Amino acid sequence: MKTRLLFFLLLYATQIFAQKKSYYVFTSFRDNGQDGLHLALSNDGYNWQPLRNDQSFLKPQINHPDNLMRDPAIKQGRDGTFHMVWTVSWNGDNGKIVGYSSSKDLINWKPQTAIPVLEHDTDVRNVWAPELFYDKKQKDWIIYWSSTVKGKFEEDITNLSESKYNHRFYYVRTRDFEHFSETQLLYDPGFNCIDATLFEDKGKFYLFLKDERLKPVKKNLRMAVGETPVGPFKDLTAPFTISWVEGPSAIKIGDEYYVYFDHYTKPHYYGAYLSRDLNDWQEVSAQMRFPKGMRHGSVIEVSKKVAQKLLRE
Questions:
Q1: pLDDT tens, 230-251?
Q2: Residue 312 CB: number of other CB atoms within 10 A?
Q3: 44-77 tens-digit pLDDT
Q4: Domain span at 178
Q5: Nearest to residue 272, comparing CAs of 263, 222, 194?
Q6: Number of domains the chain is built from
Q7: Intra-chain end-to-end CA distance of the chain, in Å
Q8: CATH code of the domain containing 238
Q9: Element (H, E) at 245
């Protein structure tokens, strides 16, 4: 009797486990970001299916001369709401903003707003690749990005990138996406850097970033570690990728860590590096399948309910 009961309990547990399935959504943009948000879905982190026949889910509607939606980054809040930020403009005084919208299902979105940043700084050249992170201890959101503020950091020919950019990472805090703290410096590794993304694991906060220096060519990904999501960050690693990659997005699937990237020069392709200890990395791009023309975005895990609704679009 006990043997039969154990068998049926084991069978039931196996069936329940089989029904549980993780799904992952990748945000991205195409071309220059003029047509907005693109989404792709995967159940293994390797094979990515474009949704809605790779048509835009949300077109940029912020009143701005550029009105782009580049580098869309999404995080889901504790109440289930998806929050998204993006790059609105390449350059200019009118570019000191971050695009923002929210959604309950990644399909229906609230009106887009512009979040002002670096309001007390002059000579801000750009606001690029904003991302989001929820600080569980402070119970608020951190919006962080890279900017070049003229004259703020020492410039030399080895530290600059194309068009003499000299970026560092900055952030603001918010609880409601209506009121924001003053802009603070997030991280200065001592060189020009863009495309930060935060990843939390076992009480540590890992900041993946692109070393943007051009002479000699870096253009690769590195990682620093902090005790809080705003640092201080230390133990900056050596590059763990090839050159000419950007837009890192990190996730843990099972016992493995993945950092996806956009190889933006010829041949243009999306790829990933895999690690089992956040120290040793191997490229697994050849095993990946991504939508054609995919550009810098972010990856998140979603529920089966959200995934099924997206598949019906």
A1: 999 999 999 999 999 999 999 9
A2: 7
A3: 999 999 999 999 999 999 988 899 999 999 999 9
A4: 2-311
A5: 263
A6: 1
A7: 49
A8: 2.115.10.20
A9: strand 245-253
